[in-house]
Specification:
heterodimer, A: alpha+beta, Glutaredoxin, 2 domains, five-stranded mixed beta sheet, 8 helices, 5 strands, 12% strand, disordered N terminus, B: alpha/beta, Rossmann fold, Ubiquitin-like (UB roll), 5 domains, four-stranded mixed beta sheet, 17 strands, 14% strand, globular
Chain lengths: 171, 593
């Protein structure tokens, strides 16, 4: 946890001119739309990768809504994350077909390889492991997502091969 | 538009791109120019033909021949054989797979494709291909020859019901919204397909986005709306991208925006993205989410047709409902109503998943039996195993056992059997599935996705989950079953929205049809399907084990010991029952007890 907090402070997007400008741009483009909060948060999440409490306060201030409303929305939806994530994300689909198709065994194998439970990031800040809802690729179950790529019909003994490319990039 | 005798679709999925799909495209273009065929044969980009493992791959239409493993050097031979000599170049034809598309194969004889008509056939990124298939003809017909009332009447007579799961007559919904004398009115498409095991809507949005857009414009004309929203879940980035491209193209041709096709009717459309909350598939929660709030449902009435998005009258329909509309307008309501059963008209798309031979999307008329769907369309159970149960309607649906196989599938019959149609996920389970574990899995899902507004749903689902976890771990008590039944009843009765009301369904249906499995877990501390980890142990059988050490090397907790060429032993106290040893063993020497 402390490692994650440190990463956040080091990468505070509000003190980084490039990313702050990006956030401002997103707010300016969308602030007059009906229901702007969701649109802004979605775009900030995908552009920056997370929305810290400070960022929520800033967005609330810029949209002229109470901070509690922004925080309420961020905490409601599972897509919004408040902590910095690893450079890469491995998501395990927990849809029915994938669950029946063997996702639990894949998670077990991943724990062995990376040494972390789902919901955590490797100490070097490289890989975040998560469980996600059905990605709708049920005909290829079990499915995992490595960053944006959907990988289907994964077997536990294929996990090292799947993780290798993103592990290597870090090295 | 130029007419081509043949189309070559080149797969440009990431996998095929890596293997040089663009080189193949260039080589094809060059060769077609050289051979003077460029005016007869068109080369297009596509995705998901389904043979990326052996890529690069191309598909040639109208024949539907699937070539794989080609290099640019093979292209002249291929063009010569296929397009000049008119014979299939056998050595590149994909042989192993009988299925062309992982998700969508050629329709079987029991299928009728209305919603999926264009999926996998046209290029979703090119509006002209949709137009060539008769696209936007329905819109043209409506705007030039029908009044809004006549349009509603046609949809009403077709018998089209809401495909989001409830089956409420679409025409009636439109009537209510039209009757409300307040403006603006909003047209909303519910593309928040959150049920695990369902991907029908994703495929339609990715494969034929204009059908949904056209259906929405027709609906907007009928109810008198000038602004629409498509609320799509964030898990579907490709669908969102495809929709946005389609909307831009429709704008460019004057099919969206001001004065559509010179009729004086205005309508605009915007895609809004969800953020991973299952409950937002409920219409009032969905509208709250578009408004930029927490996606919590609210009581109805007032119904959206009276007070919906931003407090204004709104009409919410599912992706599949809208996609049916253009076809109904073109072919007439009688044609549509000729499919299906007395009370459920038309067709329904289903996502067939789980332990069935051919997983993927299907579209069948209502009234087909579960047996026909699983065995005739789906090819039966995988690996020759026995059918155990089918789960219909997603996490709020029910699990039906073998005695319901001859049930004709429509809204009414499924409800009678204690399940629901839902959005159309069908998950087939074989004999190796533990029904208590499945009930636990669904309860884990709904308790996590409960928005927390109503206490019965928020707390009750949590309590049910705890009891089910106890049963799966061998801590079940005989009184648990009564407690479960009581909780289920109360949650069903006292929850506000469909999520809470439906949440207990998997437990209720498994308790009803598979009670003996619950009893085996509780009384005998035994999992009959050998799934619940605390109730099973893995052992290595003396005879078949050759001491090859594969299991020991793959064990994540290193609990397997033994000398090379000697029978190995699993330490049950350390073993985490992951089953990896059993999967990697080449001699079937590992058994579950």
């Amino acid at each position: 946890m402390s490692a994650t907090t440190a990463t956040v402070q080091k990468n505070n997007p509000l003190t980084d001119p490039v990313r702050k400008q990006l956030i401002d741009q997103i707010v300016d483009q969308n602030k007059d739309r009906p229901g702007a909060i969701m649109v802004v948060l979605n775009e900030v999440q995908s552009a920056i990768g997370f929305i810290t409490t400070e960022m929520q306060d800033y967005i609330a201030h810029r949209l002229q809504v109470p901070a509690s409303r922004v925080h309420g929305v961020v905490s409601f939806y599972s897509f919004f994350t408040t902590n910095a994530r690893g450079t890469h994300t491995v998501k395990f689909c927990m849809g029915t077909a994938c669950y029946v198709g063997g996702t639990p065994a894949l998670i077990e194998k991943t724990k062995q390889i990376l040494g972390i439970e789902p919901g955590n990031t490797t100490p070097d800040g490289n890989i975040t492991v998560e469980i996600c809802r059905c990605v709708g690729a049920c005909s290829q179950a079990p499915v995992i997502l490595v960053d944006e790529d959907v990988i289907g019909r994964v077997k536990p003994n294929k996990m090292p091969q799947v993780l290798k490319p993103i592990q290597e990039i870090a090295e | 538009m130029a007419i081509f005798r043949s189309h070559v679709l080149v797969c440009v999925d990431p996998e095929c791109l890596k293997k040089g799909a663009h080189d193949i495209m260039d080589a094809l273009q060059d060769e077609l120019v050289t051979k003077g065929l460029i005016d007869e044969i068109q080369v297009l980009e596509t995705s998901r033909i389904g043979g990326c493992d052996n890529g690069p791959e191309i598909m040639v239409y109208p024949e539907g021949v699937h070539y794989v493993g080609i290099s640019p050097d093979d292209v002249p031979y291929l063009v010569e054989e296929h397009f000049l000599k008119g014979r299939t170049a056998e050595k590149f034809v994909l042989k192993e797979k009988t299925f062309i598309d992982e998700e969508l194969s050629a329709p079987t004889s029991k299928e009728v494709r209305i919603v999926l008509k264009n999926c996998g056939i046209i290029d979703p990124g090119n509006i002209e291909e949709y137009l060539a298939e008769g696209g936007y003809e329905g819109l043209g017909k409506v705007l030039t020859s029908y009044t809004p009332e006549e349009t509603i009447d046609i949809v009403l007579r077709s018998g089209l019901g809401g495909r989001g799961g409830a089956g409420f007559p679409t025409g009636k919904k439109w009537q209510f919204c039209r009757a409300t004398q307040e403006w603006p009115k909003y047209m909303i498409c519910n593309a928040d397909e959150g049920d695990p095991g369902a991907f029908m809507n994703r495929r339609v949005l990715e494969g034929d986005p204009h059908a949904v857009i056209e259906g929405m414009i027709i609906g907007a004309y009928a109810v008198g709306s000038s602004q629409g929203y498509i609320y799509c879940r964030a898990e579907y980035p490709l669908a969102i991208k495809t929709l946005n491209i389609a909307i831009d193209q429709a704008h460019a041709l004057g099919l969206l925006g001001k004065d559509i096709l010179g009729s004086g009717f205005d309508f605009d459309l915007e895609v809004r993205m969800g953020a991973g909350a299952f409950v937002c598939g409920e219409e009032t929660a969905l509208m709250a989410s578009i408004e930029g709030k927490r996606g919590e449902p609210r009581p109805r009435p007032p119904f959206p047709a009276v007070k919906g998005l931003f407090g204004k009258p709104s009409n919410v329909n599912n992706v599949e409902t809208y996609a049916n509309v253009p076809q109904i307008i073109i072919n007439g309501p009688e044609w549509y109503a000729s499919y299906g059963t007395e009370k459920s008209k038309g067709t329904k798309t289903f996502a067939l998943a789980g332990d069935v031979q051919h997983t993927g999307l299907i579209e069948v008329p209502f009234g087909l039996t579960l047996r026909e769907i699983i065995f005739d369309v789906g090819g039966g159970i995988k690996d020759g195993k026995a059918f155990k149960a089918i789960q219909t309607g997603g996490p709020m649906g029910g699990c039906l056992p073998a005695e319901f196989l001859d049930l004709p599938v429509d809204y009414q019959e499924l409800a009678k059997a204690g399940s629901i149609m839902g959005s159309g996920g069908l998950v087939v389970m074989d004999e190796d599935t533990c029904m208590v574990d499945i009930a636990r899995f669904f309860m884990d899902f709904v308790q996590d996705e409960s928005c927390g507004k109503c206490t019965p749903c928020r707390v009750g689902t949590r309590r049910i989950l705890e009891i089910l976890e106890g049963i799966c771990e061998g801590r079940g008590k005989e009184s648990d079953l009564d407690t479960l039944e009581m909780l289920c009843e109360q949650i069903q009765e006292d929850s506000l929205c469909g999520l809470g009301q439906g949440a207990p369904n998997p437990v209720v249906s498994t308790l009803k049809h598979f009670r003996s499995e619950y009893e085996a877990h509780i009384k005998e501390k035994r999992c009959p399907a050998k799934v619940c980890k605390p109730l099973i142990r893995y052992d290595i059988v003396d005879g078949p084990c050759t001491g090859c050490t594969v299991c020991a090397r793959n064990c994540p907790v290193n609990c397997i010991t033994g000398e090379r060429r000697q029978t190995h032993v699993i330490d049950p106290d350390v073993c985490v029952r992951c089953g990896i040893c059993m999967q990697v063993c080449n001699f079937n020497a590992i058994v579950i007890n």
